[in-house]
Write a structure and sequence with these properties.
Blueprint (H helix, E strand, L loop, with lengths): L13 E5 L12 E8 L2 E6 L3 E2 L3 H9 L15 E3 L3 E11 L11 H6 L2 E3 L4 E4 L2 H9 L6 E10 L3 H7 L3 E5 L3 H4 L6 H8 L4 H7 L5
Parallel strand pairs: 5-9
Antiparallel strand pairs: 1-2, 1-10, 2-3, 3-9, 4-5, 6-8, 6-9, 7-8
Length: 207
């Protein structure tokens, strides 16, 4: 897998919590899981907005008559609106087994395979084989199917944070594994010591 290390100024891995000023758009009350951030730009996925159809239904629609065998569980698995960019692309973010470690020497191979380890135990996959494995039930554990992503060019995200559009928070996997999607925005603010109602009334603020 790709090396999960990052520079001290990177917001990945971590979360962005939308301020009230972003109301009325695709990022309203969004919680974005950041998977990449450096001087060249940033990439993340909204992880608190479920959409239709289900994972199984989406895979069935995409493959048509050539649909691989899907597990019953895939039809109960919600898909998330990852962001407004590249809505034709399906991704999966998954938690790898704590025993599974891949040497840094295999970084190039992992990138070729369409995976990015943005955290020691969390992987972003855009490869069809990985996605099909989850849909068919050949892989288990924590995972989130997502359509689209959020992207920023060089310096763009930093400017938005300076304007008070986002609050940056450290990565906390419990937000993904133990918190219901609809509760993640409130929970993320609470984890930062902020009262969501007060935050809304004050209009947010700079990070």
């Amino acid at each position: 897998m790709a090396d999960a290390s990052h520079d001290a100024d990177s917001l990945a891995p971590g979360f962005l919590i939308a301020a009230p000023s972003l109301d009325g758009g695709p990022f309203e009350k969004s919680v974005i899981l950041m998977v990449h951030h450096d001087s060249d730009g940033a990439m993340g996925f909204i992880v608190n907005k479920q959409i239709e159809p289900s994972f199984g239904e989406l895979m069935e629609s995409a493959h048509g008559p050539s649909t691989p065998t899907l597990s019953d569980a895939s039809y109960d698995r919600p898909v998330f609106f990852g962001g407004p960019v590249g809505l034709e692309q399906l991704w999966v973010i998954y938690r790898q087994d704590e025993e599974a470690t891949v040497p840094t020497s295999e970084l190039e191979e992992a990138e070729t395979a369409g995976e990015l380890a943005f955290h020691a135990h969390w992987i972003l996959a855009g490869a069809g084989s990985v996605i099909e494995d989850y849909a068919a039930g050949r892989r288990g554990g924590e995972y989130l199917p997502l359509l689209g992503y959020a992207g920023w060019g060089p310096g763009q995200l930093e400017g938005e944070i300076e304007q008070g559009s986002w609050l940056a928070a450290d990565f906390d996997e419990s937000l993904l594994t133990e918190t219901a999607p609809k509760e993640r925005w409130n929970a993320a603010l609470t984890n930062m010591g902020l009262d969501p109602t007060t935050f809304m009334m004050m209009g947010g603020g700079r990070a």
